[in-house]
Input
Amino acid sequence: MTTSLSAAHGHALSVPDSAGAVRFVPTSERLSALTAAVAETAEQYDRSGEFPTRGLEAAHRHGVFAAVIGERFGGGGLDAVERLRVLQALGQGDPSVALIFANTVGTHVAQAHADVWPADLYDRVLAETAERPVSINTARAEPELGAPARGGLPATTARRTASGWVVSGRKAYVTASTGLDYHLVWVKTDDPTPRVGHVIVPGGSPGIEIVETWDHLGLRASSTHDVIYRDVEAPVENFLEIPYQGVYRDPAGQGGPLALGHTALYVGVARAAQEFFVRFANERVPAALGRPIATTERIQTVAGEIEAQLVTAETLLYDITARAVAGDETAIARTPLAKVQIVRAAITAVETAVAAIGNPGLTRHNPLQRHLRDVLSARVHPPQEDQALVGAGRRALGV
Output
């Protein structure tokens, strides 16, 4: 049997029932199964640094790629809080897979609210998603510009031609680069007064070169390399303009109800660290003690501190998102600051586990060192800490 995943203009797409697509509901049982499935290959990809194909395929089999597609396109239409739960579950299993998925989710959420993409091209994305995990990401950062969330014009240009656009430039930190199906390249046009936006470029387009620069401490399988675009052609309708509003700024850094998607995956990393800590504490029986260290008050206190940090992180993550989606202006304004506090709590939880365990927490044979390396990457996502604190400080001071 198959279930229909309908595209914008009534194109029927077939998705195997076994994938659980469309009908995916983020119950505790389904989320735990999702975590376990992507976790099977997490260590392998962390060591090799290769694109996490099998982890993404596992996520696709569980139906989450179709579940985040809008209901009007035949998808599952998960709401904002449900999407966060999925991202946390993926992050607990393999944060590289979660990061690639998180970037893809943004496109489907935007399309569900407004027809951002050309209809025929989005129909093609839906058809491909029925068959495999389709990855989509914006290529924004540049070596000279730095983080686009801090403002400025991109050096990458889109030159108008008789048939469409020609894109040229270099982007840094393009997650999923070696396996990216669709690049949304942030560009300025060659008009006398430049327009700014994203040009949609299929991953297999001639003129795309991946420069394998990604050799980071954490998220090693995220394939966050540089990409060079040399006269890459795209149809005229593939330019998605970002209207000028007094400053050209990357909308990803502006906060709001969708700003905590990436943050959620690192809460998942911290939960994975806690899971290892609990298992280790119950299995470790020192000869001098004669019983598991989990029975000692010191380890119980450490476990309580880890849980306290995670309760703080999850409460902020889910409560402020629910309020922001409901239109609470105070919650929306506080979202960047919430991101800072959630990240601090997640990192503290993992560091607390490592400090308590000692050498076993840092050995490559155990996953805790991987969780520590991965959770530190939470700080780099916009809004970054200094920006969030300055904004909060100005509001508090009334300046």
Notes: The radius of gyration is 22 Å. The beta strands are 2-6, 12-16, 136-139, 157-160, 164-174, 182-189, 196-202, 208-211, 225-235, 239-241. The longest strand covers residues 164-174.
